[in-house]
Amino acid sequence: MPAMQVTPRPIVGVACVVGAAALWGTTGTSQALAGGTLPAAWFGALRLAFAALFFVAFAAAAGGLARRAWQGLSPGAALGAGACMAVYNLAFFAGVKLTGVGIGTAIALGSGPIWAGLLQAVFQRQPPTAAWWTGTATAIAGGMLLSAGAGELEVSVSGVALCLAAGLSYAIYTLLNKRMVGRVPASSITLAAFAVAALIALPAAALQAGMPAPGPRDLVAAAYTGMVTAGVGYLLFSHALRHISPATGVTLALTEPVVAFVLAVAVLGEPAGLAAVAGLGLVVAGVLGVVRAELALPRRASEGGHRGGALRPQG
Q: In whole angstroms, what is the distance from residue 121 CA to residue 130 CA?
């Protein structure tokens, strides 16, 4: 199947990622409001299962189950993307349990853009620009301040390793998604990836935590995070990758902890310390720097100075 001809519009890509990150940022609050006793492994696995069901329904409604919608889909890339999504969920929840929410989230989300930038430079020969690295470093520093709580700072080596693995798996998922999105509709990519992820995560959760006994509030929270935060969110993210580079997409996703922080303060009544407010400002400043760098790339590309720019559609 020939490549889908798409004129890159970075502002569309930026808007889609920010919208996706805003949805992702509601995950923690919805889980907290559920107040259930569902183990973290099962919450993540059920989230993937509900997301897969959402993508089946969406693809059916959009005609995405037709044979032509799957032509050009690389089975290896789809399986790899699904495995990465499963590893991300399992490694992230396990790592956060060992390191704590603040440190674990900061390591997982903060390492993602670094992994993505390095992978893009090595495998796609398109290293991000200096402006991108500056904005990313600023956003990561802000994320560390924003996510780190006032609790103990004991570090679990295995927990840190799991969180780094989560960041790496998310970066690889993004690059594999970018590879497919120029040839296959986003609905087909997300359906394939999340179906594989659910098939991996469900038995893994059973082995780790036994069979669950979810209450109604658990199921509502899992359904919301699966269908809305993962379903709608990852459709937006996949569409964004038609217009921006994978590394930029992962960095812009750092908007997620900003939304999570605002909701934690406004909805859950958590205190907002000075360090967290400073971190909020750094994340916003860093993300704006990355957006500015991404929006400048088409102009430089047209002038023949394309270095670390947005990936153009193949074909």
A: 13
Structure tokens at 145: 């301040």
**274: exposed, middle or buried (Cβ count in 10 Å: 0-12, 13-18, 19+):** exposed
Q: Which two tokens stand for residue 47?
A: 């989230």
Tell me the two tokens of residue 302. 């047209």
- Report the C-alpha gap between 281 and 149 in whole angstroms: 17
- pLDDT tens-digit map of 111-162: 899 999 999 888 878 888 889 999 999 988 888 777 665 444 556 788 889 9
Neighbours of 56 (CB within 10 A): 16
Q: How far apart are CA 230 and CA 315, in angstroms?
A: 30
CB-side exposure of 36: number of CA atoms within 13 Å? 21
Main-chain phi, psi angles of 179, to 5 degrees: -65, -35
pLDDT digits (tens, 9 = 90+) for 193-233: 999 999 999 999 999 889 988 888 889 999 999 999 999 99
pLDDT per residue as tens digits for the range 244-285:
989 899 999 888 878 877 887 787 777 777 887 888 888 889
Measure the CA–CA gap between 189 and 178, rounded to whole angstroms: 10
Rounded to two decimals, the pTM is: 0.81
Q: Which of 65, 93, 49, 25 is nearest to 231 (CA)?
A: 49
